């Protein structure tokens, strides 16, 4: 009896967000780190993998809750997309959700990086 | 936990997580949780991993992850609803006979309940049309003198004014006094000279307009009621006197002549008020001022002939007023009134309680009875419950034919609540149709019911605005109550069992259903037995030897109007061949007897009923003498003799009563000698014991004259005699003749019981119908289920009789069991009811057998006919289909 269609929902929201974001995007710090980590993992980015990567690289502990919230938010903004993997005997037989940075996401990351660099460049003397 | 097993994450944490997590995210996050737990458990140990997982789960409890409290998405269930209605409709048409049985049972039950509710609403709505009905009270009088005690509506003329002046809480008070029979003659009109006998009038105080809400149509209200020789009519009386167009006739100021206190008086019409509605405990045709009665102004605390009503201040506790009432009597009555444990005090009755809860001496009209309202309510709810039970029974019985549907629906994805909803909607549809049918039945039977319950129901007053929504709510309630069990029952099974048809009906599992049928039979056999016993008791009292012959006696009222011509009247009457004998008396059986103080020789003063009668009383009423003689004209100076009844002789302990002396009014000036003892006769209803009674000769000096002439008529000469009597009356009096037949009046004494009997016989019919309808449906179903069994049995050689016996055995056992349960309950209840009579029948065992056997017999016929069809079917037909 469940009649909802996830894909349709996300397409519609992506479309709306796109229109809004084009002019002015803003990424939070944690969002940016998550997106970068997803990009690093390149096709292998799922919940625990992302956390492990962040914990080893940045030495910072992340809870599943905070990560998933951000992932969901980024997905609804259209910066990330996800698909379910195959079920294995690991993880209690549960499938993994793999995240990928979308083109829009890449664009936003690049913008963010440019802005930072612009700021760095504008510093007259980094003593 | 066993260390050999791989380390598993704590299940309760996972379950907790699943509980709150958004279903769309649950799978991958759960996987993450498990994976992370495993990593941590390897690295940091099991314990630590558990704690960290608990922390993770807690941190997951945040917006964005937890499921929304609304359903995750709003389903549009419209199509599903439409489908439920469609399926309900299809089912209804597919099983036409079943649906008809089901719906008609419900409709009958609902219609009966609606009618009963109308009745109860009518009965409980009395006297509420007065604006201040909540604050109006009737004041009654309780007194005790020697051995006699009375509790009555009649109070002294002084009470009203005294209460108003002494108690600040009493805003207003009014006295009413019955006018009695009075003749009015029109003086100036097209039908001038015509006279009318009126007996529904009151002398009242002008304050009646302050206490009660009377609607004045013409003239003034208060002023005419404070002066003499003015009259205020009701609309209906105005119509009788002046026709429908009385408004055009300028009737104000016209006069009516009457012989008032002995001399002809002219009375002026001073106003017209609207008739009191039906739901009033008293009614009147006209009002006149108390000023017309001089005695109403004298300060006499002994004459008790007034009805007193008071209006008290809003918010006053009536008990406070009541508590102060005895003081009034102590202050105004002489001390001797309270000697020897004698009592005088008053009590308050709320106006709105009078109709249903007051049945004391001197009521202004025939009141209802709260017991009968309860009886109506209880029987109505029983009928409604039976109708619901029927519905449940029939629906559950047919459940097996729908298990497959339920199974398929479950497989396709219906959840149980949805299926329950589907069945509830179905029963709502049935109920709604039943309610519409019931409304039709009510509309058609309303006139019959009105005459039956002796009430008038004004449909406009019921208010369609409340009635229609009421019906919808009612329908909804019944649909839910009747549908909930079948809904739960039908949807209980797992889809696999339901689809496979693995759910068979076994005899043992039908305990619930059999219990329901038993309940129906207990109620219907019980009500049938009850109504049989009631009618037997009524037959008994109506045919009981009363000590006098009540049939064939015509009684003329108000015969004092004949005055001195009474003797001539009587002689003329005797000339008619059909008249056997006639007698004049102060009262007649069924009417109130006067009572007076007596001082029997060598005994204490006592109060008892007495009667003035002439020498023909004995032969007219066919009363037997036990000892001595009755009055006789042969004994010239019989005016100081006296007849007593046997009860009085026994009461006084007199072995040889003849020749004993009794002083009337406890006064030696009026001594009478007992000349005879007569057999007891019942002058009251059989609710009462035989009471002591004395008869004094109507030609004694103290005689107040005769109010009644009783005429015994030969067998079938009633028509002739009536004409003759009316003729004769016309020669002696110009007042209209008023008369009644004694046996009619006698039967009226048992009006309440007769009404109960009628209600019960109606109900026994209804409940029996519903029970049989239910039985019919069940038998039809069970034979349907056992079609194949019947076929096989037939093939193997079973006879038709054996098969029918097999099919009915189960039902007969149920009837037998319900009979056994019903008997003691009904026995106790009826025994209780019969105790209300001084003369009652013993409960006949026979009646129970009759009711039980006839229920059994009718059921057998129903079962027989219903199963005959399938028993007679060729086994080949039933066995072929698979």
3D structure, described in words:
The complex is a heterodimer of chains A (127) and B (882). Chain A has a domain at 31-116: Orthogonal Bundle (Arc Repressor Mutant, subunit A), CATH 1.10.10. In chain A, 59% of the residues lie in helices and 8% in strands. Chain A contains five helices and two strands; from the N terminus they run ααααββα. The longest helix of chain A has 20 residues, at 103-122. The radius of gyration of chain A is 17 Å and the shape is elongated. With 882 residues, chain B is α+β, with helices and mostly antiparallel strands. Chain B has four domains: 1-74, no CATH class; 133-357, no CATH class; 370-539 and 751-880, no CATH class; 553-748, no CATH class. Helices cover 49% and strands 17% of the residues of chain B. Chain B contains 27 helices and 25 strands. In chain B, strands 1, 2, 3, 4, 5, 6, 7, 8, 9, 10, 11, 12, 13 and 14 form a 14-stranded mixed beta sheet that branches. A six-stranded mixed beta barrel of chain B has the order 17-18-23-20-22-21. In chain B, strand 17 and strand 18 (606-613) form a beta hairpin. Chain B is elongated. The mean pLDDT of chain B is 82. Chain A binds chain B through residues 1-4, 6, 46-48, 51-52, 63-66, 68-69, 72-73, 84, 90-92, 94-97, and chain B through 9, 24-25, 27-36, 38-39, 55-56, 58-65, 72-73, 75, 413-415.
Write the layout of secondary structure elements.
The complex is a heterodimer of chains A (127) and B (882).
Chain A: H1 6-21, H2 29-41, H3 47-58, H4 64-77, E1 80-84, E2 97-101, H5 103-122
Antiparallel strand pairs in A: 1-2
Helix pairs in contact in A: 2-3, 2-4
Chain B: H1 11-20, H2 26-44, H3 46-60, H4 78-94, H5 96-124, E1 136-145, E2 148-152, E3 155-156, H6 159-166, E4 170-178, E5 182-186, E6 195-198, E7 201-204, H7 208-211, E8 216-219, E9 230-234, H8 235-242, E10 255-260, E11 263-273, E12 286-289, E13 304-312, H9 318-332, E14 343-350, H10 351-357, H11 370-397, H12 403-412, H13 416-453, H14 459-462, H15 464-490, H16 495-500, H17 511-543, E15 553-557, H18 566-575, E16 579-585, E17 594-600, E18 606-613, H19 617-621, E19 625-628, E20 641-645, H20 646-652, E21 661-664, E22 671-678, E23 693-697, E24 708-713, H21 718-732, E25 739-741, H22 742-748, H23 751-785, H24 787-795, H25 800-834, H26 845-872, H27 875-880
Parallel strand pairs in B: 7-12, 9-11, 18-23, 20-22
Antiparallel strand pairs in B: 1-2, 1-13, 1-14, 3-13, 4-7, 4-13, 5-6, 5-10, 8-11, 9-12, 10-11, 15-24, 15-25, 16-24, 17-18, 17-21, 19-22, 20-23, 21-22
Helix pairs in contact in B: 1-3, 2-3, 4-13, 5-11, 5-13, 5-23, 11-15, 11-17, 11-23, 13-15, 17-23, 17-25, 17-26, 23-26, 25-26
